[in-house]
Amino acid sequence: MWLIDELVRAAAEALQACEEGVRSEQAVRGLDALDEVALHPILAAAFGGAGYGVLREQPFPSDLRPRRGRRGAEALAHDSERRRCDLVLTERPGMVLADPLVPERRARARREQARGTLFEPLAGDAVEEAPAGDVSSVVPATDAFWLEVKAVGQWSYECGVPGPNRTYTSQLLRGPVADLAKLRDDPLIESGGVLLVHFTADLETAQHDQIVLAHRCLDRGATDSPPVAQHFPIVDRIGNAVCSVCLLRAGRGD
After folding, report:
1. Cβ neighbours, 10 Å, residue 254
2. DSSP structure class, residue 220
3. Element (H, E) at 39
4. From the CA atom positions of the chain, what is the Rg in Å?
5. How many Å apart are CA 215 and CA 248, to the nearest integer?
6. What residues contact residue 218 under an 8 Å CB cut-off, 6+ apart?
7. What pTM was estimated for this model as a whole?
8. Mean pLDDT of 134-145
9. Average pLDDT in the 63-89 region?
10. 178-to-76, 217, 250 alpha-carbon distances in Å
11. How far is the first Cα of the chain from the last one, in angstroms, to the nearest whole number?
């Protein structure tokens, strides 16, 4: 269902159009001055333009609070405590994600209300009500594509001052691996990946470093497929002359 080449192409074309825009404006700062959060609306618009539904900052479906609740039971997380995924894609616009924690919260509330009453044995057998609205527009987490965004530059801005990125290797190798593992380890996520927006001095550096990253991800079991990437030139303002859009798909964890 998910065509990785198509996702990468849509993202690359949108970012290249953004670069061409700042170039025509002769802006002092370019595409490589944008942080990950600033890239989210650009990428969301790109995927929406390609015909997908796009949801931003969605909670991970299996996220539970890492502590024990009353009577030693694992407590369900509050929405504010749950980790969030940058972008979640659906097959078409207008679709919403079914949150598995919502019916579980309701079931636990029913059981708590019935505790100590004659209805306690039946509380766990109650049928969950169907969601209101168009049921066909509600999709399970397993049918969506969960996408984390990472932006890493060989040269970057620190406190507004451009220069070589002193944490470049750490950002490139640790961040994507951690996000891929997070996606892999959620049992309700079947399709997902990390979209790396990668700025380098030249194409050779980009390709070499992405191969190193891919091997690190494979070694950690965070991915089980080769990355897909597209590259385009950008104006060298601070040392970066190439932007790469590289998608690494999360392993299935099985």
Report:
1. 6
2. T
3. helix 36-49
4. 21
5. 11
6. 224
7. 0.84
8. 83
9. 70
10. 23, 9, 11
11. 20
